Amino acid sequence: xxxxxxxxxxxxxxxxxxxxxxxxxxxxxxxxxxxxxxxxxxxxxxxxxxxxxxxxxxxxxxxxxxxxxxxxxxxxxxxxxxxxxxxxxxxxxxxxxxxxxxxxxxxxxxxxxxxxxxxxxxxxxxxxxxxxx
Length: 133
What we know:
Blueprint: H1 6-19, H2 24-31, H3 35-42, H4 50-60, H5 64-71, H6 76-90, H7 96-124
């Protein structure tokens, strides 16, 4: 069986629920899931779908991406990229064209940096074969 981070997710959800001063029943109602199901998630007995995590995140007013990372659905780098994009897209002070331009620049910087990292790793590999012609 694949290793799931469900226990960690459940502990985190319980902590967030308590911080929000919500009972299990209140959160279940706000998220549109059953009380027993939410209890099983908090105890690490169930792995919720991305949709359920999104509903719970909305009810807790926290980032769904954070829950995706905790559940093992998304890795940390993907979460950071999604959050950066969300900030750009949510900014009311810039228009849609400007948002698209910013996202294109962001993507080009990410590709450039990834290429540099790959080149550095290739140069650092002592047994790297020379490129074939």
